[in-house]
Amino acid sequence: MSAPDLITTIGMEVHLHLATRTKMFCPCEVRYDAPPNSCVCPVCLGMPGVLPVMNGRAVELAVRMAIGLGCTIPAFAKWDRKHYYYPDLPKNYQISEYDEPLGLGGHLDVELDGETFRVGITRVHLEEDAGKLMHAEDGSNVSVVDLNRTGTPLLEVVSEPDIQSAAQARAYGEALRQLAVYLGVGHCNMQLGQMRFEPNISLKIGDGPDGSGGQPRYTPITEIKNLNSFRSVERACAFEIARHRDEFAADPAGYTLENQGKSTRGWNDDRGVSFLMRSKEEAHDYRYFPEPDLVPFVPAPEWVDKIRADMPETPSQKRYKLVTTYRLSPYEVDVLVSDPDLSDFSEEVLRNAQDSSTAAGLIMTEGLRFVNERDKPISKLFKPGDVAAVSDMIFSGEISRSVAPHVFVQLVETGKSAADIVRDENLAQTSDEGELERVVDEVIRENPGPAQDFAEGKDKAVGRLIGMAKQKTGGKANPNVVREILIRKLRG
Amino acid sequence: MGLSKREVLHVAHLGRIHLADDEVEKFADQLSTIVDYVNQLSELDTEGVEPLAHALPIHNVLRPDEPRPGLSTDQALGGAPDAADGFFRVPRVIDDGSSA
User: How far apart are CA A58 and CA A176, in angstroms?
Assistant: First the structure.
């Protein structure tokens, strides 16, 4: 009997900070650059006798995300206390939604390498973040606590175990981030810890070649805590999948979910390995009970309808529009929809440009270079009309593609229009046959070898000759005209 | 219903309370009495009764998303047993990932 197939199943828990100005249950400002313990009040410090009050904006953003994920919005949601003792949690309980969350049963369609896979969404709920705990660097036996983050509105999205590879896990995380950013739900800045991932990994043990037959069996579930980059999500999942395979190969009868249950692991990104965390049975004894300090949330149907009606465009809607209207390739669309500012800008350029492919190419090479260099959104660097104008001038042959980098520099530096830059700097391509004939004669005289090669039928040599002609004209020689003149003179 | 010694120790650990041996026995008795008393509620027939999420018949008490000043750092740290450089200081903890 051959070894059974092992099918990867990954469910993901994702936490993200909502884009609110204040905390979930108190009016303290949410800030990432403030001195420690300067954005705190009696509520988020867990003082006795205080009363939390829901942040209406946080609830609205959470419902918006739930709708964006195709969830149903139950008519009733309530808050619960989840208890555990830890120094970053001053109340000794976290306010969360345990059994009646505000969003249930949706899905997210994710693109990967030109194919779409669907991930079911189990639930979406709101909770509050904990504070930050750091180990003192003075070698003392002390940890230090900053409670600025305590009480930050935190949205948790729990997926079904529909993810089937490490690459899919990463793509799912990226798609979720994209959706949250498009919907204005969260900024999802990974460096600031505004988005964190916890994949739950298990391999389904197939009985037959297709994994079918009998009761499904699984390898023990491992949950990897607190991953904060897409790269670490992919690496940690790949590592765990391989580790499960090895463990199962060594002990096919024993290494099962039935025998070993679930465990929690950390990820060491420097060493590229996961490690078992201290797993105490009672760690999961959270003693949930309804939060007596907060009243339930009962969304009015009209309120939900209004959020639904005011929904910003989602990445998949934008993607569909770019593919169907402008016939861009999956790769081009992936790049252009990666960020809402870029996708709005691109759509505006494409609407005004004669040739979509030329325009998309310009945005992706010239435009994004500046976005990366200057760390600014593209709409703050260029006007869509200028990019469309450059695209049209290239498409019509008025300017050479090779002067585009220079024009883009000038657009950023001078603030002049594309048309003015081309005119003022005399960048238009020369198609003047008389002038180009003279240039070509010079090129042939100075490059007898390649000229001879081309005359004898070696087509490759023409590139060198055209290059020389462009050099002599400061990039302005129209290559097509030069080619024609060369053919006439050397092969005529 | 008597609580076992193991259950008392478990509950004490969850609350990070250290109990001496004689206290475990003492609290096992006391906790059993409390649990028995509250358990009388389970004699009621609650078939078909929705669980009550809140004692008051109100909902949707929301606050506008507008920042208001809270405590100063000195005030926030004022009641802490140990603090320095704007931070609370606590006995060193190993991150076992039990936080949110």
Answer: 18
For residue B98, pLDDT beyond 50: no
Is A202 an interface residue toward B (CB < 8 Å)? no
Q: Name the DSSP letter for residue A5.
A: P
Q: Which residues of A128-149 are buried (b: 16+ CB within 10 A; e: fewer)?
A: bbbbbbeebeeeeebbbbbbbb
Which CATH fold topology does A433-491 show?
Arc Repressor Mutant, subunit A (1.10.10)
* Residue that the structure tokens 């309370």 belong to: B17
Return the sign of the alpha-carbon dihedral for residues A207, A208, A214, A216. Answer: positive
User: What is the count of residue pairs from A and B with beta carbons less than 8 Å apart?
Assistant: 164
Chain B hits for A133, Cβ within 8 Å? 93, 95, 99
pLDDT tens figures, A331-351? 899 999 989 999 999 999 999
- For residue B91, the chain A residues in CB contact (below 8 A) are 141-143
Pick among B61, B77, B85 to test the A interface (most A CBs inside 10 A): B61
Beta strand spans in B1-100 (E): 62-63, 83-84, 87-91
Instruction: Give me the interface pTM, i.e. the ipTM.
Output: 0.87
Instruction: Decide if pLDDT at B13 tops 70.
Output: yes
Best residue of A31, A45, A98, A281 to probe chain B, by most B CBs closer than 10 Å = A45
pLDDT (tens digit per residue) in B55-89 = 888 999 999 999 999 999 999 999 999 999 999 99
CB of A225 closer than 8 Å to CB of A263: no
Listed by start position, the domains of chain A span 6-303, 334-424, 433-491
Q: Read off the pTM.
A: 0.84
